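Troubleshooting: if your tokenizer reports a length mismatch, compare your output against this known-good record of 575 residues.
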Amino acid sequence: MRRVIIIVSFMVGLTGCVSTPRQAGVDKQFSLLASNVWQGESKLTVAQPDRLPDMSPAALAARQQQRLNWQQQLQQVNVAELSAQNQINHAILLYRLANQIDEYQFNAHLTPLTSESGFHTSVAMLLQGSVLRQAGDYENYLKKLATVPDYMQQQTDWMRQGLLTGITQPKAVLAGFEQSISSYITIDAPASVFYKPFITKPESINDADWQQLQQRAQHVILTEVNPAYQAYYNFMLQDYIPAARTTIAASDLPDGAAFYQNRLAHYTTLDLTPLQVHNMGLTEVKRIRAEMQTIIDGLEFTGSFADFIQFLRTDPQFYPQTEQELMRYAAWLSKQADAQLPRLFKTLPRTPYGVVPVPAEIAPKYTTGRYSGASRDDQAGFYWVNTYALNRRPLYEMPALTLHEAVPGHHLQISLAREQASLPDYRRSFYTSAFGEGWGLYAEYLGLEMGFYDDPYANFGRLTYEMWRAARLVVDTGMHSMGWSRQQAIDFLAQNTALSMHNVTTEIDRYISWPAQALSYKLGELTIRRLRLDAEQKLGDKFDIRIFHDVVLSNGSVPLAVLEQQVAAYIAAQQ
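Known-good structure output:
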């Protein structure tokens, strides 16, 4: 099948334009179409209250055909006649559909896992996120638990097909992956993560009914869920990992070069080639390396760059002694960041956030930290901190990590988007890596203006995080498009950052198993910083950082071309 990579062009006007009666009619017609597409897509992808999604071949083929029909309808819309906000809505709906369609055409469903996690962890998180208040909610939860075996078997069947067609995750990134499966298997049912909803009785259920629900939950966990996870564990260990492909590049997959170009376009929302991205990365690495050397010289360290990195990786003063020490430091940094927000932002989210450890069942192969957003108004967001292997969690990286994952990074940006009541639901929940991760890295940069890096080591930690994202441009394109080996990529990342070797290998395996996603961070940040510099230069004394941040964040997560248009409109209006 011939693959076509679609780069969508955006035509976004000034948000202050007055609509005409004709435009109002066109907007109304489009809004109906958009609502049908979004509601229909939600039904295709969201699990039902009493069952997990159907992943059978017939179900996936039907979803693909429906998405192609919606895509065709959206492409027939005259975008130029839509209001500015509906132009953004149109672009985002097309972007989301294109990703689903492309992933199916490139057989992404044959590899429903990365080096970090997979459908087995997604099922657990989905079930843990269930809202249970009444007896009927618990009944549906038990029914959904009972569908775990069929769901996992369907996913395993796709992976078997992948083994037959050469579409698998590389063997090199799967060492120890089975541990993330066995962690969900418990002899004692009440100790299972799937039993958590049954620990605390709601007032709406009487004692006798509650006891019966608890007994049924234990039964389904022991007779349905545990065997399903055990079967998947056995499959991974006995069949999948031994037969997984020995190459690492996306370009080595069937139609792999087109697949990688497609993923690059999706994650960055930019029209760039792997070679262009690779060269941009080399330029950034050189610049950041010079800044890092300036800090080393200022500390009067007499050894080489490699010696300084080794010093940072091995000296106990830079590492927490206990999980509590690491978590308390992360929480303290978070509150320090909170206090700086009003002078940089006019609009702040009302949703609070907490600081919690990465779940133990996924921590060994998980990244150093992550943000988990709220999905309902009665929930908080959470900044996850990985407390596994404390001697690999340097404290000098924590300021940058906190700014990225909590505030003013992901929590602030994602919560503001979710709270935009004037935007349709699909805008409020939309997330594209180029914008979201670009904003996260920009938030690390804002730490300089916040006075957050109060010693040379913390500032070096900021730079090593920036170098980490710049090096991604080099190693991701290198491995997936230019013949780099896994060890070559590990060496490049290790030689240019102060990341612990555990984090280096974990990250490289993540890039191998998730092609092009890592490119979005640095390219997004470069775009935001370029747009800010342009606004500062053109507006001079009229530039207000708080208003600029409102402009960037007020439309939620958007493709970078839309952001360019919004900032250009803001500059024109100010002038």
